Amino acid sequence: RTVGARIPDDVLLKEVKRRVPDATYYYLMRKSLVMEWAVHAAIEYALHLTPVLPSSTLLDFGTGRSTNPNYRFDLSEGMRSEERPVPFRLSDNLSKFMAFTRDGHFAWSVQATLGMMYHKKTEMYLRPIVWDCVSEQDSKSQLSEVNSKTERILQRIRKRVTGE
Q1: Helix-strand-coil percent breakdown of the chain, rounded to 5?
Q2: Residues 127 and 104 in one domain
């Protein structure tokens, strides 16, 4: 049996409604989560982060926030962007929970995030973070190797954001 056959497609929706009985707070929390997930999806796509999985997403019903402690830069080379896993797949549970906000808040937030990354100098902020990740991955690398690998990763990110 598939996972979909074992887990009802409305389990997330029912759990959130059970924990958040106030309609106004439910709406605001769902809107906040959907917009947050949209930003995560756009950043995961653009920055080549490791894919987010529902099993590693932590929801805080008190604040209406989610976290994913397993995000990492995917430093593997050779994988073309069309071969990478689709970022933030919408499972039946997420789709039911998002409902109409998927076509509104989710889509708008993805567009706004990628638009900001296109127009701002994101690379300036990313360079030290990517450099740190590359140098941490292989501490015995020469400085020139770390710099060249960092440049290749930043070039992939730039191409992904600009659509080249």
Answers
A1: 65, 5, 30
A2: no
Q: If you ran DSSP here, which 8-state letter would residue 67 be given?
A: E
Identity of the residue numbered 85: P
Domain that holds residue 113: 3-120
Structure tokens at 139: 């501490």
Cα 51 from Cα 70, distance rounded (Å): 9
Distance of alpha carbon 11 from alpha carbon 41, whole angstroms: 22
Residue-wise pLDDT tens digits, 8-66:
888 888 988 899 889 999 899 989 988 988 888 888 888 877 777 777 888 888 888 88
Please report, as a single letter, which amino acid is at residue 83: E
| Per-residue model confidence as pLDDT tens digits over 104-149 | 898 899 889 888 887 777 788 888 888 888 888 877 778 888 899 8
